[in-house]
């Protein structure tokens, strides 16, 4: 009589325990599902945060590129003006090429030995002939402007050529003459210039009085 009620109570308790455990397992399953969802959401948040950071870096990089591009375009705007001016200058030089080359050839062939004043007067007469015969030529003729090379002229000046129009024109004549020139050089300027400029080319300097050495060279 005492055991039967206890067994009934045990069975009831076991039933309640099983119900509680079943409910616990259900809650644990729900918790696991929620934790899995939370982990997935955290992973998605981390991925989106990383994507946001990368996008922010790309936005900043694009901003820098845009800023550089604007500076480049601004610089090229100035270059466009310079290129246009250069193209206009070249077109004018090409249009005047025939007359300018005729005057240049006349200077090189006939005027090398004369003074600056006399050379200028004769050059102006050459220009006048071109003008009167309808041959296109530059309004203000310059031998250096027609045949001179800026880089080469700069090298001449470094080598000791005097920095004046007459001397530079003399250098242009020497560089473009078909035969070797005889230089009238009372101040020894051409002598120093040639020696300095041609030193790297192993220039050999001799005197007419050296006889056999002169013939050998």
TrEMBL record:
Keyword Nuclease: no
Coiled-coil boundaries: 10-72
MF GO annotations: dynein intermediate chain binding; dynein light intermediate chain binding
InterPro entries linked to this entry: AAA_9 (IPR035706), DHC (IPR026983), Dynein_HC_stalk (IPR024743)
Main location: other
Localization in the cell: Cell projection, Cilium
GO CC terms in record: cilium; dynein complex
Keyword Coiled coil: yes
Pfam family, one: MT
Record domain Dynein heavy chain ATP-binding dynein motor region: where: 154-210
Keywords carried by this UniProt record: Cell projection, Cilium, Coiled coil
Listed name of the protein: Dynein heavy chain ATP-binding dynein motor region domain-containing protein
Source organism: Tetraselmis chuii
